[in-house]
Amino acid sequence: MSKEPIPASAYDMDHAEEVEERRTLAVLVDNEPGVLGRVVGLFSARGYNIESLTVAEVDRGKHRSRITIVTTGTAHMLEQIEAQLLRLVPVAAVIDITKSKRGIERELALVKVAGQGDPRVEALRIAEIFRARVIDTTNESFIFEITGASEKIDQFCELMEPLGLVEVSRTGVLSIRRGKDAG
Amino acid sequence: MDTHTLSDQTQSSLDGARMTGAEMVITALREQGVDTMFGYPGGAVLPIYDALYSEPSIQHVLVRHEQGAGHAAEGYARSTGKCGVALATSGPGATNMVTPITDAMMDSIPMVVITGQVPTHLIGTDAFQECDTVGITRCCAKHNYLVTDVDDLARTLHEAFLIATSGRPGPVVIDIPKDVQFATGTYIGKAGVYKPTYQPKTEPSEHSIRDALDMMAAARRPVFYTGGGVINSGTEASKLLRELQAATGFPVTSTLMGLGAFPASHEDWLGMVGMHGAYEANNAMHDCDLMICVGARFDDRVTGKISAFSPGSRKIHIDIDPSSINKIIRVDVPVIADCKAALQALLDGWKARRLPKPDLSDWKEQIEKWRAVDCFAYPENDGAIRPQYAVERLYELTKDRDTYISTEVGQHQMWAAQHYHFEEPNRWMTSGGLGTMGYGLPAAVGIQAAHRDSLVIDIAGEASVQMVMQEISTAVQHKLPIKVFILNNEWMGMVRQWQELLHGERYSHSYSESLPDFVKLAEAYGAHGIRCDDPAELDAKIMEMIDHDGPVIFDCMVEKAENCLPMIPSGAPHNEMILGKISGDEIDEAGRKMV
């Protein structure tokens, strides 16, 4: 609190709370039984949103897992989400990837498109533009593997829709920060 | 926390010792300084009970229902400042414990609950008395464990005590399958236990203290708003609060949970804040220019209407739990720290700056005007005993004794908070956050088990107490001379009051039909029963209760239709408190929908 003079009433503070923002949070946790349940339970118990969630052990020696959660909420709610997550005993750190200038987010998707003739050719052409790889093919279908920001995958799926989109499987957002340091 | 520990020699000889899981439980409890625990045996905890059989240093209080064990452990913890310990079997034993675990979570009471579980190879098979204890208690405990390897058990037990008693205290559950209790493994002492992800911050930052002191020095209408955190922080915190108050002269109010941290006889004591708090406290909160919240959490029972809560004040919030900051009310200066450390830093800073006691005469004059309203005044006894009068007489006749008070939940709880006055911390045990009817009697059992020679009184309602009536049997068995002082108005009084005010006097299912004869009931249990319905006899009968060497049920028949006032109607701000008669019209549509 370095404002000066002494801050005015709390009610004079800026309340731009109506605006909901999307945030990607990386939650570093001890990989112990039930830890995912604790994190997910906290979101449901307190009425927070989960748009996507990924989890895997990232350091076997230290028993560390990394959970990346994409959530939406008002600034006030997001502040509470971070504080409530840190209250959980196995949570070591919460990193706001969205706010961090050095944050990188990626998602991987497997996209199945079925069709013949022109639409099939068009699907392959678009896949090339998006640098999606074909990982399975039949005479009537492709499965593409695509990596990128979630918006890019959204856009890819949208373009595939009229070309015979059958099914999509997405990992949810993965996150990391640039630079040499961990966390 | 002053805990008795084993001598270093014994401790080191135990480190690395081979023993069964059940023996580890008892050894760890001893090493943690546990002298009393509350429990109920069953199939999945028999090995632990077997290890307890030959353990003279731990007093085991056998309850009649596992919920009683949990609340007793809470009462023990709250009255001693130590960690409460409860033991229950798997399945129904564990599910019966859910209410006290949640209660302890809401009120930040340090408690370790040990539950038995079916053997590991049966987990997930819907075995007899199996339930997913860690799943059920995940959201209502501070932390929980299922221990599947006996070599993890000792570390887990010590870690549970560390987590339950440090930071913001709370309940920790350890679920131990029966085969793990039988298995032999290696014990480790508490010294080696360290949890890297769990490092609560207890010392305040320098800049937060500096900013807080700037505000305090400039304040002209300040108020301390203290809570259960001051009690949790230990008796030293209450002492420091008194010193800081003496240095500053600021008036003090407290939440329900914080009563006793500041002496009620002090001239700057405003009384309790909140829905049924004092007029002077609520108005001071509304009109202050600086609010110093110490270990309280802006609960809805305290704030009333959020948008109109203390509109002209700057706010300092001292809390050990960062998630409490800005959760309900935005504050200007958060001080994330243990109350004791923060109060010490503020006191040191105040002295170092050589700040004079500010001139607060205008503010105190205003407070005296509010105080003159005499908001807790009530009509004379009109034939029947007024419940407020009963509490007042109970206070007058017990205040000079070594007395502990617990309560159930409802009107009687609020009358007790208003008319019984506390000078010291740890003397007042009540269910604040969860509002658990049936808390008080078992809590009294726990308090009395910790303070054998003290006077322990559960101020009860006739409806609440029936939820846990069976625990009077526990008191009789263990020679715990608790006094259950029932304000019997034959109604679920607070429900009735809200129905009167908000539901057109349609008293749906709130009359206590078919009440037992509490005097005969006491006698049936081997306790002493007393009934009083005459104000003129009240003092003599209270003295009879106090002087009786054993548990007493006191059936105090009181005015049936008395409402608990004053009251901030739900959805209203602090300065719209209703003092005298309340009609219900004061509450708007939005307020009616609130609880």
TrEMBL record, chain A:
Pfam families: ACT_AHAS_ss, ALS_ss_C. It is an enzyme of class 2 (transferase). Keywords: Amino-acid biosynthesis, Branched-chain amino acid biosynthesis, Transferase. GO terms for molecular function: acetolactate synthase activity; acetolactate synthase regulator activity. It catalyses: 2 pyruvate + H(+) = (2S)-2-acetolactate + CO2. One of its GO terms (cellular component) is cytosol. InterPro entries: Acetalactate_synth_ssu (IPR004789), Acetolactate_synth/TF_NikR_C (IPR027271), Acetolactate_synth_ssu_C (IPR019455), ACT-like_dom_sf (IPR045865), ACT_dom (IPR002912), AHAS_ACT (IPR039557), AHAS_small-like_ACT (IPR054480). Residues 24-102 form the ACT domain. Pathway: Amino-acid biosynthesis; L-valine biosynthesis; L-valine from pyruvate: step 1/4; Amino-acid biosynthesis; L-isoleucine biosynthesis; L-isoleucine from 2-oxobutanoate: step 1/4. Its EC number is 2.2.1.6. GO terms for biological process: isoleucine biosynthetic process; L-valine biosynthetic process. It comes from the Bacteria. Catalyzes the conversion of 2 pyruvate molecules into acetolactate in the first common step of the biosynthetic pathway of the branched-amino acids such as leucine, isoleucine, and valine. Belongs to the acetolactate synthase small subunit family. Dimer of large and small chains. This is Acetolactate synthase small subunit. It comes from Henriciella algicola.
